[in-house]
Specification:
Blueprint: E1 2-7, H1 16-27, E2 31-36, H2 42-52, E3 57-62, H3 64-74, E4 86-91, H4 97-101, H5 108-121, E5 124-133, E6 138-141, E7 144-147, H6 149-161, H7 168-181, E8 190-194, E9 199-203, E10 205-209, E11 215-217, E12 220-222, E13 234-239, H8 244-254, E14 267-273, E15 275-288, E16 291-311
Parallel strand pairs: 1-2, 1-3, 3-4
Antiparallel strand pairs: 5-6, 5-16, 7-10, 7-15, 8-9, 8-15, 10-13, 11-12, 13-14, 15-16
Protein name: Diacylglycerol kinase family protein
Keywords: Kinase, Transferase
Domain DAGKc: 1-136
Length: 312
Amino acid sequence: MRAMLIANPKATSTTLRARELLTRAFAGDLEVETVETGHRGHATELGALAAAKRYDFVIALGGDGTVNETVNGLMSHGREAADRPALAILPGGNANVLARALGLPNDPLRSIAAILGALRAGHTRTIGLGHVSTGLEDRYFTFTTGIGLDAEVVRAVEEMRGGGKATNTMYVRGALRHFFSGTDRRRPALEVHDHQGRVARGLYLAFVSNASPWTYLGPRPVVPSPRAGFSTGLDLFGMRSLGVLPVLGALAQMMVPATGGPRGRHVVELHDAPEVTIKASRPMALQVDGDYLGLRDHLKFRSVPKAVRVVI
């Protein structure tokens, strides 16, 4: 069996030593070709190449951005999940949300044993994806997208890190700075349209999730949409207020998943939606799986069931 190992050399835990260990670990089971990414979007190109050349597996060694790009490359070929290489994830970023949501250890070396065992046993799981169209580009996402404050924070952290390591401290600092002096907390800009024609207006931010959690703060999951899952449609969480007390209340409920997620008169939620449209009265920041995409004012989301096979 053939595999392409797509490695991001700038990912948090990805070192030359780690890649060498990974290649040796897989050598007895797979014919592995290792390729390093060299620019933004390169993993998408490599994932598409692996699919076109009919590799059996693609192994993504990096953070959520590398995994997202790889998935978008795989989705460019074939009509069914079985037509594409299966995806194995060796987490090497800061949050590693998708890998952890699938139950993998939050470390590439600790994940080797789990992935090797699954490969030898032939275990794969087919998961659904989300898809967003902005009018400028189409993008698949594995766990979440965000419009508004969280995307502004992602943009700020990308500027702070300058291509280096992102840390939880950066995200917390960026969130506090933008909440109190960056984002517009007076003029809500978003309205949400679901597949049944229902409309929710006056939102300041929205997350559209394909899975839960939305992210991790260190070891703790942050869960705005606890019912979101890889085998259901899309979930949406939105806020009609960015006042200090409503936001603190929602965050407290997100940090304690047993509460069932945020509730209250300022919260808007959807569950298991096949399609969602979000319109903005002014361009708003957009992030997809933790990557900042720019300012957008019209977004169409759809659920893509049984899209990708993952080794797990």
